[in-house]
Structure to design on (122 residues):
């Protein structure tokens, strides 16, 4: 989505990206970002919370009109109603969703990627 936003901007179409993965989206250099501190897959609000979803969308539209500099990021200011336990599952060195051979394969791919970056091949 971030690269599409940049493409559209280069061709005269203003964009706002509503996202949950702030570091990734900012790294891609989107012109305007509304950051929502929710689990991945929920950038526009919690399921069935229509008022919250509308408010987030309204914030995105307001950001479209108010951003004065490239790469403007605004935080939506919402927190997930069930607390922040979801972050413990995502932002951890352990990968609880992987075990055994799957974990070992994931670690090997991660190390291969680091080596490619170090060697300037990525």
């Amino acid at each position: 989505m971030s690269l599409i936003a940049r493409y559209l901007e280069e061709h005269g179409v203003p964009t706002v990206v509503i996202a949950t993965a702030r570091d990734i989206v900012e790294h891609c250099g989107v012109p305007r970002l509304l950051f929502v501190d929710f689990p991945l897959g929920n950038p526009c609000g919690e399921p069935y919370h229509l008022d919250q979803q509308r408010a987030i969308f309204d914030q995105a539209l307001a950001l479209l009109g108010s951003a004065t500099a490239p790469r403007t990021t605004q935080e939506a200011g919402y927190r997930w109603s069930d607390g922040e336990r979801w972050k413990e599952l995502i932002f951890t060195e352990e990968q609880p969703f992987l075990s055994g051979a799957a974990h070992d394969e994931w670690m090997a791919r991660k190390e291969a990627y680091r080596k490619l970056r170090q060697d300037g091949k990525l």
